[in-house]
């Protein structure tokens, strides 16, 4: 209903411009025919133009405005013929009949045709009284009636044809929208002239808002994750200033708080003069693939049993610390003393549960700036940043104290201890494999001393 009213308003505005031209041409033709404008109905022209302008700009009564627009040419022609009787007026009147086609409504065409016939009857009556058309009224009315019938039939065929094409286009657009919704793609167009954003219905699933509520770019930008707003604004500038196609990934926040990852593709569109007129593209929901990507990345750098970082992550982070020159570091190699016997006695399930609990206890003994990883089996590494030998010794003592507390699994009470080797690097430099090797040697030294101990290696690498 609202789209129909908006359509009538738009056509009223177009017809107002056409009628203004119609009045000016009519006055011009009669001025050329007579050579002066003294008898022309200028007050009527100004009054009609003013009234039509006010009701069109008011946009309150679209149907009444439409009827007024159709009637106004006939009022003007009657006023014109009252001032100066000329066949030119009747020719111009036929144009008034044809302009009613702009509404593509056969009812308006029929209404205009009735006005045309009524005006023609009045016209011939005036001519007969003036003695200018005696004896020819019958034939002239036949011609007028045939012309009106032709205009009505032509209008009906044209309206039926255009609406048929529109219907096919709308069905095709509906099908395209259904397809876009089913594959999680939202099409978008940003008109630079009107600063209006047009989105396909699929945007509702990503934002919770209908496309009609997001006709302004700034409104949509408010739904973008704050961390991604500079990237979106930069991409828009790239399209407008450098006229480049863009491809970016950002996060959209649904009104219920859920976050969607989307891929935005944008292309600048130029007119035939090479001027940038609009931006257009698609928004693709990539949340599932992004989650899979993040999951794969997590698994690539974390141990799937304990959730701790693995050797690859440990190596990457250590290299980062070395490059940033964070200062002295201490590397701790931890090996459980009796893990194999627990596996053999209670089974692998109990062994796995034990490793998970040990991982949690070890994590509680270090700072947030430090790093722990599981090498594999029953071996763990801990990296202490900005540490000295005394701090490393205290951490080792806390670890042994923590592991001395019994573990409970399936009503069994398990006991575990660890041998710890420590390699200290005052300058924070060195090769990871060599550092691990040195810490490993210190760990075996601790085992030789009786297990549940720690040993420090300070030999240079």
Automatic annotation (TrEMBL):
All residue ranges annotated as the PAC domain in the record: 246-298
Keywords: Membrane, Transmembrane, Transmembrane helix
Residue span, GGDEF domain: 327-459
A Pfam family: PAS_3
Domain PAS span(s) in chain numbering: 172-243
PROSITE patterns the UniProt entry points to: GGDEF, PAC, PAS
Spans traversing the lipid bilayer: 14-33, 39-57, 113-130, 142-162
Signal peptide boundaries: none
Coiled coil regions in record: none
UniProt cross-references to PANTHER family, sorted A to Z: DIGUANYLATE CYCLASE DGCT-RELATED (PTHR46663), SLL0267 PROTEIN (PTHR46663:SF3)
Name of the protein in question: Diguanylate cyclase
Gene source species: Paenibacillus aceti
